[in-house]
C-alpha cells in the first residue's frame, strides 16, 4: 500500500502507477491519503510500503526518503490580475496563507519573512487545492508549487516566488529494510519520469 499526502504531487501518482503496472500486470496497488505525520508512522510500522511526502517531514534513521521532484514555487493571482512583480503584489493584494501545520507553509513563511513585506491576510487553508480554488475565485493571491498552478482550471497569473526562486521537494519514503525495495525503487523512477523537467532520478 502507498500513502500520499494531500499535495499537488498526488496527480503524478496515477501516471507512475500505470507505468509500473504495465511492467508487473499482477501487481495490485492500493493508495491511502492522509497527513505527513501519520504517513511516516505507518511506513515505520509497516502498515504502508511507501509514502509520498515533502522534505523535512522525516527524522528517523530507520527510514529512507528519496526525492523525485524539485519544483519552483509561484505566486498565483486570479485571472486578469494586473501585477508585474511579486513584491508589489504581496504589498497590495489580500493573501491566502497555508496553515502552519502544512509542510509547504514553512518554506513560504521563511521566504516571506526574509522579504520583510507587510502582508494582508484574508484566509488560511490547509490544502493546496483549497488555496488554489480561493485564488481562482478571486479571493486573493497565494504561493503554490508550479504543478498546482499549471493544472488549475483557470488561467491564473503566475510569477516565480522568492529571491532567488524557492523550490520544494517531494519524495518517496520507505523502510530501509523494506521487502518491496525493488518495486518501490522502480516506482520512484517512474515518478521522476512523469515529473518531467523537474524530476530527480
Automatic annotation (TrEMBL):
GO terms under cellular component: cytosol
Domain of life of the native organism: Bacteria
UniProt record, GO biological process: regulation of DNA-templated transcription
A matching Pfam family: LysR_substrate
All residue ranges annotated as the LysR substrate-binding domain in the record: 2-191
CDD domains xrefs: PBP2_LTTR_like_2
Protein name: LysR substrate binding domain-containing protein
Organism of this sequence: Paracoccus aminovorans
Lineage of the species this protein comes from: Bacteria, Pseudomonadati, Pseudomonadota, Alphaproteobacteria, Rhodobacterales
Amino acid at each position: 500500500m502507498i500513502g500520499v499526502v494531500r499535495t499537488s504531487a498526488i496527480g503524478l501518482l496515477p501516471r507512475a502507477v500505470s507505468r509500473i503496472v504495465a511492467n508487473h500486470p499482477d501487481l495490485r496497488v492500493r493508495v491511502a491519503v492522509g497527513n505527513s505525520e501519520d504517513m511516516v508512522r505507518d511506513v515505520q510500522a509497516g502498515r504502508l510500503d511507501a509514502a509520498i511526502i515533502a522534505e523535512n517531514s522525516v527524522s528517523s534513521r530507520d527510514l529512507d526518503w528519496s526525492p523525485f521532484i524539485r519544483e519552483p514555487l509561484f505566486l498565483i493571482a486570479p485571472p486578469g490580475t494586473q501585477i508585474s512583480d511579486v513584491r508589489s503584489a504581496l504589498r497590495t493584494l489580500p493573501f491566502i496563507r497555508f496553515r502552519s501545520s502544512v509542510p509547504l507553509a514553512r518554506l513560504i513563511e521563511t521566504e516571506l519573512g526574509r522579504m520583510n513585506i507587510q502582508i494582508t491576510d484574508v484566509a488560511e487553508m490547509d490544502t493546496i487545492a483549497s488555496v488554489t480554488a480561493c485564488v481562482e475565485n478571486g479571493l486573493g493571491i497565494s504561493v503554490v508549487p508550479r504543478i498546482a498552478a499549471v493544472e488549475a482550471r483557470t488561467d491564473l497569473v503566475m510569477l516565480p516566488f522568492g529571491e532567488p526562486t524557492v523550490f520544494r521537494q517531494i519524495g518517496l519514503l520507505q523502510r530501509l529494510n523494506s521487502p518491496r525495495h525493488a518495486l518501490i525503487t522502480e516506482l520512484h523512477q517512474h515518478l521522476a519520469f512523469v515529473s518531467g523537467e523537474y524530476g530527480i532520478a
